[in-house]
Structures are given as structure tokens and as C-alpha cells.
Fold these 2 entries.
Entry 1:
Amino acid sequence: QGREKLGCNPRKENGSHVVLCELGNPMKAGAHVDVHMELSVSGLEDVGDAIAFQLQLRSKNSHNPNSAVRVVRVPVEAQATVELRGMSLPASAVLPTAWPAPEGSRRPEEHGLRVEHVYELHNQGPGTVSGVTLRLAVPARLGGRLLLYLLELGTEGGMNCTEPPGLNPLQV
């Protein structure tokens, strides 16, 4: 009828984490108790899509001291906000309609203006992020003419990149 806060105590029992809540003693025959629990659980990054709790009532009643174990599966949903930031160096450039590249030249500055694009991926949390794939499409040609010559690709921070086909075909 009334609402009470229960005192619950976490402890380890046979290698498992157990939370023991005292509901009160003695209870009258046929008593009905609803218990709403809020648990804070950490370290769920690798548990998959659900976590299972085993619930059991234990009593000092000698006729039926333990209820059947009930398993409650609670879905786990990871949440993280990932932000992609990008910039170009220089921020803007005016290109000529045609750039005559000297035949056989291996100097990048003779093939056009160097423009560097930098992308940063930031995890704002609260969860950790792994297995992220970033696909970046760069327009190399426009109207059948060379627009951007992809010279090199580099990464920092333990990421792996797959080099796009056609990266530096003239070996500049």
C-alpha cells in the first residue's frame, strides 16, 4: 500500500555479483510485494545486445525457502555521439581552367596547387566507439577532366585506411 525504499547490499557469492535486498520479516501469508529496482551497471562495452539478471526470492520459511530462479534479459544499447570535423588547407583556392603539366615531371608543384584535406573523428561519448567505418568520396574528375589529383593518404591514431584506386597514378 505504501512505498518504501529498500536497503540493498551488493556482494560476491560463488564468483557472481549478488545484490541482496531485505523485504521485511515476517510477511503475512498471501502478501503481494512489487519491487522496482534501478541498477547502475558499468563495463557493458563487450556484453553484446543484452544482459541477463537472475532473480530469486529466499526466505527463512522452512517449507519453501527458495523460489524458482527467474532470468530477466535487459537489452543493452550503446550510445555515443560521433562528430566528424574537416578542413582544407588552404581554405579556398582559385584554379586556372587548364594547368599545363610538364611532360615527365615528378615534382607535385608542377602538376597543380597543393590542397590538403584534414578530417577528424571525435567521440563525444558517453560510450566508447569501435569498428567505425568512414567512407570518403573525393571527386577526382569533373566533366571528364582532372579536377583533383590524389597524391597521398595518411592517418593518425591507430586507424587503418584502404587506399583508393588511382592514388598517385603518375608517381609524382
Note: Strands lie at 8-13, 16-21, 50-55, 70-75, 80-89, 116-126, 141-142, 145-146.
Entry 2:
Amino acid sequence: ALRLSYLHAGGHDPAVLAQLLHLQAEATALENAGLRRGRRTGEPQPRPPAPQPPAVPMETTGTRARGLEATLVAVELENRRLEDELLALKVRRERRADTGSWAAQRQAEELAQLQAEVAMLRCHTEGTGPRLPPAILPPPIAPPLPP
């Protein structure tokens, strides 16, 4: 699962892939050893040596376990760093999309307003279109009569 995650995240470093393959082989060997111990006798069965990639030197079992644990911790930290970086990239992409959609919405509103103004000006210059109703004025008041 770690190897697939690393590959899906764009990882391609041969040293990391070799370490992940080594970890996978160790995990398989440990699982097989655990299955053998779970039999009726309850006594641990001898474990076959795990296949080692050529880049990893042979070490004593205790040192190898500590080395594997350290390697696993390092891979986990790198995985967390990559997840954080991926999250930051997603947030930046969403912000850009939000900014782009906000700008597009604003431009669409301005365009609609300009189109309405152009239509109103056309109607006004052509003398057609909706006109204001004539104002209803009170009857004119005559000037006062001279004495």
C-alpha cells in the first residue's frame, strides 16, 4: 500500500522504491512467521530469511529491525509531508477557481448592465420602445384679474 501510494503521488526515486520493496518483503515474512506461530503447537517456527534488495546490506536481526523501524518512520514522515503539500496545492487550486469564478460572475453582471444600457439608449435614439407616461398635471391657474 505504501509503494502504491508513493507511485500514485508521483514518486519515482529508485532508492525509495527499493526500500519500499524491502519493507514489503519484511512484512510478508513477518506475517508468514506469525501464521506459523499460531498453529496448534504454539511454538515459533524458524523464519526463512527475507529477500533483500542489493542496495541494503545484511545486518544483525536487532539492528535490522531498528533500521527498518527508522526507515518506516522516515517514510511515514515523508508521506505526511507530501500529504500536507498536496493539501496546500488543492487549497491553492480551489482559491484560484473561486477567484476566477468571482471575476467571471462580476464580468457577467457588468456585461448584463452594459447591454441593458445600450438597449435603453437605442430605444431612446430611435424614438421607439417604452416611453414614460405623460404627466398628469393640475389645470393651469389663471393669473389674477387686474382691479
Note: The mean pLDDT is 76.
